[in-house]
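Deliverable D5.2: sample structural annotation.
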Amino acid sequence: MNQKSKLLAVILVLTSFFVCHALAVKYITGSPKNKEQTTSTKPQIKLPDFAKIQDIPTRKNSFFDFLKPMVDSENQRLRKLRSKLADMSAADLQAIAKQYKVPEGTDIKKGLLLRIDEIPASLVLAQAATESAWGTSRFARDGNNLFGEWCYSKGCGIVPQQRSNHLTHEVRRFASPEMSIRSYMNNLNSHKAYQMLRKLRAEQRVRQQPLNGCYLANGLQSYSQKGSAYVKMIKAVIRVNKLEKNRQDCTTTLARST
């Protein structure tokens, strides 16, 4: 790819990012009602047309460069929320515990500390690339859905072309890529299917180790029907694209805990 084409790719990515960021700020400061509507209506902002970038390495780098600031921003929000837990009122803690699906009868603060924490950017970017075909899938282009998230109310998203007649799910539609990232992180931080991921993350915190995307990928057994094969796939994306400095965990298998 010549220098002019690379420059156009960079301009495309930067322009889309700043427009998406402005929308996210409006979303975050809006009313709860508006937030709920934002995820189900037609996307207000679309991803850049990554398919137009013919050079594969340039397309990959453009994809990562576009999403990385959004991932960092969401992780920063989670860090701030986590740091405020100690000083929150009981009522506020109860409300957040409900949002993060902390089981009743458990220590709320302990449960929230397990759930409200960062997801390594390497893991987010690798899953986004895998689930959205590097931002070129129909669901990514038409619905800003980067992670294959489903919804179950009519009109909440995009109906898959290959969906069986007896099924009712749709692929969720988001107003912006940032909203897709937030929903995905909330899913990993709250759904019971990813308890192992949260346990592995807590172990790294106790050992005072940097969170590692390949290590936490071991907790994604339930993300896909492919199970352990999916985990290996995500690790490979992280390793091949050098998304982690320490890639030792990308080539090892962790036995699934029960």
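Annotation notes: Confidence is low (pLDDT under 50) at residues 21-40. DSSP finds eleven helices and three strands in the chain.
The annotation will be released with the project's public dataset once the embargo ends.
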